[in-house]
Amino acid sequence: MAVSFRRKGRGSLKKSDSKWPLRIVMAMWILNADAILIGLIYFNITSPLNAFFITLFVGVPEIPLWYWALNKLYLNYVVPAGKEVVENATKEGYFYWNVEYWIKKFKSVRNPVSWHMKIISRAIKLLGYYGLFIISAEPFPLGRTLTITSCVVARTRFGLIPVSLGNIVHLYGASILWSTMFQ
Known about the structure:
The protein is an all-alpha fold and 183 residues long. The chain is 73% helix and 0% strand.
């Protein structure tokens, strides 16, 4: 299932591949809970507590949707695209790499016993679910992105529970933070 970048300007997706992950990522980018929260508080549309409850309805389904979309994008588009880039670069003489070595590396991303999967699994075991919760509850958007991506790579759906709870704490803390900053 190689992805072709040379197809008459129609993009890199085959007709059999679904574009739903890309559409969901775009919708979640537009309906970002943090952006909605800041807008509701900055323009004084509702109270901070009501803004928290409004963004809670967007923020709770956001975590499993990000997990699903990143899982589909990572395994179905990023890995095959990287594999094809290495193959094309070595065929056309741009780089003199060992093609089999890099193809084996890209295939190892899907392998749960590969070296980078062991690193992520050790980090999750070291931090545990408490660590996923703490990183997700911090006030910056990078924490949830990092924890969801680590859950995608480690293929653990149970990690989404502390990430979702951390997101709720994050939204409540952010509503208090933004209300004190804007008033």
